[in-house]
């Protein structure tokens, strides 16, 4: 595995100790590594080091990029590279230790604080969209929840709020995003964005749409432990999706659903001010359907989009 960073000292808390870093000219990097650094490095100097991986690891030549302070969203940078046809390597992991202009769903801001995990991952999928499209939406939420369970030695039991919030004790500790590159009937590549509040919860005023933020601090989970667990769970979930499609991931997501059986309000998808806008509907969620729509009592048609608030 090759690591690339703009600040070797900043990696000390979560990469193996004793690594030898080398400052390299960007122009001297191999072609693919130069592409990666041009996407995420923003003109900074680059240091590289090789980290051994266990025999049989699914991505022995994985690239891991660590940026100390990212001036813009790495998820956005990866999406732009996808659209431009940039050759990002399979299994690429990009981490920002701190950042600005990060975002969640529908460009809503995400606070990127040091001590928390801000990860962007790129994978080749090469599977029919009809088999994997639903699973790609679910995959980063499932991987995050699995990783939190694993890193806490099963003490933490996260739940999921429709459609991409991970909760612990009723507080939001993680949010996820998915973007894809589709060619004809095939999903060729996917980018996942995952933010997990590890060391601290951001100072965000909760709303009916966004629950009180929490963190993993009460479980004693380190940044290095959750990072290791999350990368492993992403690799596993992508392999499952490639071979079996979305069905297994849908079942696991449904099993972790915090909203089934709850009474909710659904507002329009782009609603920001719940004080002046009227909700579209209200009722008890009876089930989550395989296309990720909601079966809500009193509504003939499944609900496919919107902003959910618990009552």
Write structural notes for this entry.
- The longest helix is centred in the middle third of the chain and has 23 residues, at 129-151.
- The model has no long low-confidence stretch (mean pLDDT 94).
- The relative contact order is 0.12.
- The strands form two sheets. Strands 2-3-1-4-5-6-10-9-8-7 form a ten-stranded mixed β-sheet, with helices on both faces. It has a four-stranded antiparallel β-sheet with strand order 13-12-11-14, with no helix packed on it.
- It contains five helices and 14 strands.
- The chain is of the alpha+beta class.
- It has two domains: 2-255, Bira Bifunctional Protein, Domain 2 (BirA Bifunctional Protein, domain 2), CATH 3.30.930.10; 263-310.
- A hairpin with a 2-residue loop joins strand 8 and strand 9 (171-183).
- The termini are far apart.
């Amino acid at each position: 595995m090759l690591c690339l960073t703009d600040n070797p000292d900043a990696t000390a808390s979560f990469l193996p100790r004793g690594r030898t870093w080398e400052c390299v000219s960007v122009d001297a990097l191999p072609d693919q590594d130069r592409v990666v650094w041009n996407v995420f490095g923003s003109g900074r100097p680059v240091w590289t080091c090789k980290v051994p991986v266990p025999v049989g690891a699914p991505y022995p030549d994985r690239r891991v990029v660590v940026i100390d302070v990212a001036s813009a969203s790495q998820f956005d940078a990866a999406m732009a590279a996808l659209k431009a046809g940039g050759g990002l390597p399979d299994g690429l992991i990009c981490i920002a230790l701190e950042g600005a202009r990060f975002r969640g769903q529908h460009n809503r801001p995400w606070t990127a604080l040091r001590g928390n995990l801000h990860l962007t991952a790129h994978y080749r999928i090469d599977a029919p969209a009809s088999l994997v499209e639903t699973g790609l939406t679910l995959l980063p939420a499932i991987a995050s929840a699995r990783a939190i369970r694993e890193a806490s030695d099963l003490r933490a039991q996260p739940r999921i709020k429709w459609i991409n919030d991970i909760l612990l004790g009723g507080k939001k500790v993680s949010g996820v995003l998915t973007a894809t590159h589709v060619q004809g009937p095939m999903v060729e590549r996917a980018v996942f964005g995952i933010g997990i509040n590890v060391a601290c919860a951001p100072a965000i005023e909760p709303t009916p749409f966004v629950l009180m933020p929490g963190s993993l601090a009460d479980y004693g989970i380190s940044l290095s432990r959750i990072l290791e667990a999350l990368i492993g769970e992403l690799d596993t979930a992508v392999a499952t999706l490639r071979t079996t499609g979305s069905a297994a991931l849908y079942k696991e997501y449904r099993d972790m659903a915090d909203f089934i059986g709850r009474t909710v309000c659904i507002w329009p998808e782009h609603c920001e001010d719940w004080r002046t806008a009227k909700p579209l509907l209200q009722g008890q969620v009876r089930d989550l359907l395989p296309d990720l729509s909601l079966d809500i009592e009193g509504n003939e048609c499944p609900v496919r989009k919107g902003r959910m608030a618990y009552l």
